[in-house]
Predict the 3D structure of the following.
Amino acid sequence: MIIEIEGLAKYYGEVKAVDGVSFSVEEGETFGLLGPNGAGKTTLMEVLCGLRRFDRGKVTINGFDLNKDSLKVRGMIGFCPQETLLYDLLNVRENLAFSASLYSLSSKKFKERLDFSSEVLGVGEFLNRRVQQLSGGMKRRANLASSLIHDPPIVILDEPTVGFDPTIKREFWDLLKNLKNYGKTVLLSTHDMYEADEICDRVAIMEKGKIAALDKPHVLKKTIGGEPSIHVKVKEPQVKRALAVLKEYNGRLVDSEIKILASNPWQTMSEVSNKLVSQGIFTDKIEIVEPTLEDVFIKLSGRKLSEES
Amino acid sequence: MMNSVIGIAVKDVKTFFRERGTVFWTIAFPVMILLLFTAIFGREIPFNANIGIVDYQKDSVTAGVISGFNQTGLFTIQTFNNTAEALNELNAAKLRAVLTIPQNFTSDLSQAKANVSLVVDGTNPDVSRLIRDATKTFFSEYYKQFYYQIHGVNYTAPITVDEEVAVVGQQIGYKENIVPGMLTYPLLFSSMVVSTGAIVFEREKGTLKKIRAAPIPPINMLLGKTLAAMLQTAISIFIMATLAYVLLGPKLTWNIPLLIPIFFLGSINGIALGLIISCIGRAPQEASNAATTIAIVLQFFTGMYFPIEYLPTFMQQMGRFIPVTYAAQALRDIMIRNATITDLLLPMGTLTGSAVILYAVGILLYRRWVEK
């Protein structure tokens, strides 16, 4: 295990930001901390990066105790917080050179890493542009390049895609997935369930400073998220009639769609479709929706993750 | 239009009042300045200089003279056994003047032809003028009263103040006096203000996280910031010194090999103080207000704008604990008195020691406030 956390706690007065958290991360794994704002994700990550002291527990990174070998541990981690930690008046190359200096990289190693940043992270095209002239996506890529400049085995990313539009978000996910090919262990926090589902090997769901559930996304969805559902969309004037027709399936109207839980989704979808057609109700859309991590969070906390965040 | 103006103003006012440190320094600034000015200029006698007295007569009459001199409140008096010893102290800038009362003073006095000799440090025209005028006035007035008490009639011929000798051979003018003081300015303002922004702005922008997440100890951070601030301070000093040389053309000794270490040590102290403020400051505005207030207060102790003899004695004593005072004095000593390296050992040692202490405090505060 490259990261081992036992009973970690961090308090701010009466507030238990992180409250007895234990988990471990395997080398080369992409591990997600999923939870709403205020769940303790950022505090936990900042503790791991040595940015905050913790009150209780033990953290071992690559065999080194975080408390005893803080400087060694910091050298093994590339930290990429949600804000862009670049200097606007410097160009990207200068920013990367500054980051390299913090880790005492030789000129040769810096050049190698610059090549990596250009080829793998795609910063080559704007290396000589000042940060203030970059787009949001470029800044995030440069930010990630800055965190990876010293070739750390562990990369910690706090809400890496918050505020991204869908296209840039997907580009960034590809970048993160590609890091696995370079042997990086990735620990990321997010409140985006799709992000966690898409790129994480395992996910820990955090709620009020504690880990409420931890497993592979598909296992969480299967064991906690519940049954798949059939989503049916019909024309507005026919909604009431459709609900009456599907009464035996306990259909509920959610966001202008009728949702029906189904343990045997394919069979149920076929039955529902036939019943509606036989009553002269035509569907705009009918689909099977598997439970999401959002459903897992709702089951665990009784609240919607998207609304919390 | 009006709404947005008011909205912006309300937002700024609320922000101001919610930054407690900024509010504190905003209030502290006028309070400290007012207290300082009151302490300096609110006194009946806004002047106090160190003066040495050599009394070769040593009788009750001269004891009365010294006592009367002391009672003027203008001087802090040190007595010496011989003139050479007193002049040594004068040349070491520990005294501003030496007054010698000759052996036959009392007998000459009874014959109304007494004299004393006065040697004044001429490196500060204002101070030397005040000492000369005050001494002449004292002897004139004191002996009028003395003679009346003895003889019951008014005494008309005052005691002659014989000599007025400047320590430095050449005439020291206003320009020569003000330039070393001006060069102290960057040591306080440039160095402190630049370094004050160093950490607090990184924290505000978030980039401090990047630095703190790296495997570097606090001293590396502080030294890196020091080097950058040092360069900016050096630019200020260079520009100021060049302009002073070209535009004012003062007749001063530009002993560069001695000036550089003093500028270096003075800057280091200013920068360290700025870094301490930067560690504590929670917002850039708060840190900036603190630095400005502290720099303005400290400048009174440097003799930058007026001689430190204008300060009350307790403030002159306080000045001994302020590093920039030593830098300011050392600059004057080099440029006006042609001081040598041996003359500068005390200020250099003091500045080095204070820098070490300030950096140690800086590291402690960095750990306490920044790495919490």
